[in-house]
Amino acid sequence: MCLFVRPPFALFSLVDLSVETLNSILQQAYDGSTVHQWWFYLPSSTDYSAALPKRTDGGFQEGNEVPLISSFKSAFLGETTTSVAAWLENKPDWVDLEGKFFGVLDKRASGGKDETGNGEGNMVVLCRIGDRKGQVDEVQCVLVRAEDSTVTLGGMDHRIFDRLVEIHGEYVPEI
């Protein structure tokens, strides 16, 4: 597999979601990844104290496995994509998170499905910091199904993200 990015990917919950919902989203992302890796990491502090350190052997660090601890709470409730992008851009060098592409969970994260399978299901907002032209102050987002989120990020580059925006339209997270 050719990777244009380096997992793990930060996944910021901007709204208060139950641990059960977070577990469901992480599991769906894992199941849909095709490589069965825990590629999403939910930061639990704003000061990087609980961030993932880079591995000394150069391998990929795994993100959060399920189940999360029952007391998990996002440190980024009510934040914006711009503020979490700044957190990611300002991360210390020892933090092992992809620096240009990340996910957020907003009000549409827990879409739910009825007993017949109708409904959108759990959703993840994929975000990009900057663009092909180096405009770093811009954050663009698209909305995808949770099960498609990590496999999409796994092969991501700016050209592919541009194509996603063309197909699905740019999405503004609902906080």
Fraction in beta strands:
5-15%
User: What is the subunit arrangement here?
Assistant: single chain
Number of strands: 5
What is the percent of helical residues?
Answer: 10-25%
Number of helices: 4
Overall pLDDT, averaged?
Answer: 88
- The residue ranges in which pLDDT falls below 50 over 5 or more consecutive positions are none
Structural class: alpha/beta
Mind telling me the C-alpha Rg? Answer: 15 Å
Largest sheet: 5 strands, mixed
The dominant shape is globular
Distance between the amino and carboxyl termini: 35 Å
What is the H/E string? Answer: EHEHEEEHH
Identify the strand order in the major beta sheet: 2-1-3-4-5
How would you concisely characterize the structure shown here?
By secondary structure, this protein is an alpha/beta fold. It is built from four helices and five strands, in the order E-H-E-H-E-E-E-H-H.
Keywords:
single chain; 175 residues; alpha/beta; five-stranded mixed β-sheet; 4 helices; 5 strands; globular
What does this structure look like?
This protein has 175 residues and is α/β, with parallel strands linked by helices. It has 4 helices and 5 strands. A 5-stranded mixed beta sheet has the order 2-1-3-4-5. α1 links the parallel β1 and β2. The model has no long low-confidence stretch (mean pLDDT 88).
